Amino acid sequence: xxxxxxxxxxxxxxxxxxxxxxxxxxxxxxxxxxxxxxxxxxxxxxxxxxxxxxxxxxxxxxxxxxxxxxxxxxxxxxxxxxxxxxxxxxxxxxxxxxxxxxxxxxxxxxxxxxxxxxxxxxxxxxxxxxxxxxxxxxxxxxxxxxxxxxxxxxxxxxxxxxxxxxxxxxxxxxxxxxxxxxxxxxxxxxxxxxxxxxxxxxxx
Length: 204
Prior knowledge:
The chain is mainly β. It is built from three helices and 14 strands. It has a seven-stranded antiparallel sheet with strand order 3-2-6-9-10-5-4, with helices on one face.
């Protein structure tokens, strides 16, 4: 099968977001200028640079009570900061609850039964007892083709790692089992991890 997106795919479900998988999930927490906290998961998310460390996520939807976007992007426009909470298997249900579209003054932390604490380097909450969190200062918001598509880039100004997952000098993701998006309503968990070295890697 081959199709051009402009012509449609002819299938019952859009295959596009099932082709680039698995995708890590950025559980983004923000704070607006009126004192409301927000939490929402984004599967169009990834790290994009080492030095300085930088991440991105994209928002592709809209809410009636925001201007051409969702609460997360609207909040970042106001404050210039956001936090990426790293999702583990044990928090999958809470993450799903926080994906619900609700009024912008609703606190998804409370709705999902999550405790929150303040970030260290930015004015923003993060989830307490999360495996890891990336505190970010927004560097740019890029508008993509389409009426509601935005990419947010941020420089990581602070990194929290749960000490329980640090072993032998490494952050051991196998201890909390990361969650990824597979497209449609499908998700996966990283339960099998293996090492694969490059052919020119001569390190011991």
